[in-house]
Amino acid sequence: MDTAQGIISNAQVHELIDIVRKVHGFDFSGYTKASLKRRLTRIMLLNKFEFYDLKHVLINNSDFFQNFLEEITVNVTEMFRDPSFYRAVNTQVIPYLSTYQHTKIWSAGCSTGEEVYSMAILLNEAGLGKKSFIYGTDINTEVLKEARKGIYSLRNIKSYAENYQYTGLKGSITDHFTILYDAASIHNELKQNTLFSVHNLISDTVFNEFQMISCRNVFIYFETFLQERILDLFYESLCPLGYLCLGSKETIRSDSFKSKFKVINQKENIYQKVGT
Amino acid sequence: MGPDKKLLERWHDAQIVLFGGSAGSFKILFRIIKDLPEKLGKTVILIIHRKKNFFSEIEKLFAENSRMYMREIEDKDILKTNTMYIAPANYHTLIEEGGYFSLDVSEPVWYSKPSIDVTFESAAEVYGNKCAAILLSGANQDGAGGLLKLHETGALTIAQEPADAEMPEMPRSAINLGAADYILTQDEIFKLLLS
Fold first, then answer.
1. Which residues catalyse the reaction (chain B) (predicted)?
2. What are all long-range contacts of A167-170, with beta carbons under 8 Å and residues at least 24 apart?
3. Do B53 and A34 touch (CB under 8 A)?
4. How far off is chain B from A73, nearest CA to CA, in Å?
5. A118-127 pLDDT tens trace
6. Residue A275: pLDDT above 90?
7. Confidence category of residue B1, pLDDT binned at 50, 70, 90
8. CB A222 within 8 A of CB A30
9. I need a surface site. Which of A5, A26, B115, B144 has the fewest CB within 10 A?
10. A contacts of B124 (beta carbons < 8 Å)
11. From CA B131, how far away is CA B149, in angstroms rounded?
């Protein structure tokens, strides 16, 4: 049932944002409000909380916060979401990456790791597996634990089979997993060149230099001013001519950034860093 | 018989028009997008259930045949008059206080993404009685709860006459909830839209 919205008021949403910032140091003020409100309402319904219950546990129960963080951020992800994006990376970005001795890729907001491993499969199939390294980051430590394991339910993996077919990659998605009963475990060779770590796009800074950054379907949760702050961070984190991949509905609109990022693929929102 | 006076007035007052459609709604939606005039003086939002990896098909067909300017919603698009927006596949579409769209990839609602409920509820929150919403043919209950919310906030709410719909479940669910101000056949809906 989703007749949830409206149980809490806008003022109450702001009150919760304040509490979370003051007590836990996470700043959600730049999040889009309609989505945030839906998530908050969902948390209240799941826990059978009234607004005051939620306020109370957020202030007094520090264990609850991890759970809150997991629920407030959207961790729905797929392997090879938007297959046409992976096709575009294959033809438009990988030739560039292959000119490097070694490439570093950052998947920002990687959740449970599906996108990191999709990219690892793509690179491996292109023969770049051994000379590339993917950093997956998220604000949420619990999802990163799942990402590190690289073990998914077989049912989920099979549901990505159609995506995989549309990417044009050979074989089938299960070729990249070891399957044991209902669990599908990503091949070790694909896991080797990945590292998962906590990074908060809102409060943390540059931590490495990359040839490619992928941050897809994260900006949709942020207000424009916050998106632009993070675009700055990405710009600083890319090597000259490095690639930035946003979600297919997340276009760079601001004029100041249009001169910093050249459009490589308009439909898939793949950009290249230009200027200095 | 044409639409009654009260219905006509409310339709003309509406600034935001939402259509929710699922299985069996394609034909009527196609006729709607073809017939709506270029300068309707309203913002039109279409939420249509469909498979995720075949986007561009419906969007392209609609864009090529609509008289009104049509675009697939992108993150933070501003709601504009005389524009027809279509909610993208595999995202939920929300409306923000500032009059712009935001997208969301969270769990499907009623097995659907886009979910009609999500957008209807969000429109009710922000625009309330400035909305008119029409829930068309469909095989599940998505949209019923959202239409009720719109109804409660004073929007004009219409459900397609179930006997007239290819799949009656969706409009019937809304009617059972008491969400529909009016129950209209396809022909009556067209008469209203073109009045």
1. 22, 49, 142
2. A167/A80, A167/A83, A167/A86, A167/A87, A167/A90, A167/A122, A168/A83, A168/A87, A168/A90, A169/A86, A169/A121, A169/A122, A169/A125, A170/A125
3. no
4. 9
5. 999 999 999 9
6. no
7. low
8. yes
9. A26
10. 5-6
11. 11
Contact A233, A208 (CB under 8 A): no
Q: What CATH number should be reported for the domain holding residue A116?
A: 3.40.50.150
Is residue B195's pLDDT more than 90?
Answer: no
* pLDDT for A6: 47
Our separate counts of H helices and E strands in chain A read: 13, 10
Angle at Cα A154 formed by Cα A94 and Cα B118, nearest 5°? 80
Please report residues of B whose CB lies closer than 8 A to that of A253: 76
Question: Across all residues in chain A, what is the average pLDDT?
Answer: 94
Neighbours of B53 (CB within 10 A): 16
Residue type, B55: F
Q: Hunting for tokens 């989505």 — which residue is that?
A: A35
What is the reported pTM? Answer: 0.93
ipTM score: 0.90
Q: Which two tokens stand for residue A12?
A: 């109450």
Kindly determine whether residue B103 and residue A220, on different chains, have CB atoms separated by under 8 Å. Answer: yes
Predicted confidence (pLDDT) per residue in B145-176, tens digit: 999 999 999 999 999 999 999 999 999 999 99
- B53 and A166 within 8 Å at the Cβ level: the answer is yes
CATH for B14-110+122-193 (3.30.70.100, 2.102.10.10, 3.40.640.10, 3.40.50.180): 3.40.50.180
With a CB cutoff of 8 Å and minimum separation 6, the contacts of B146 are: A3, B20, B116, B117, B118, B119, B120, B121, B124, B133
Indicate the domain borders of chain B.
Answer: 14-110+122-193
| DSSP three-state, residue B184 | strand
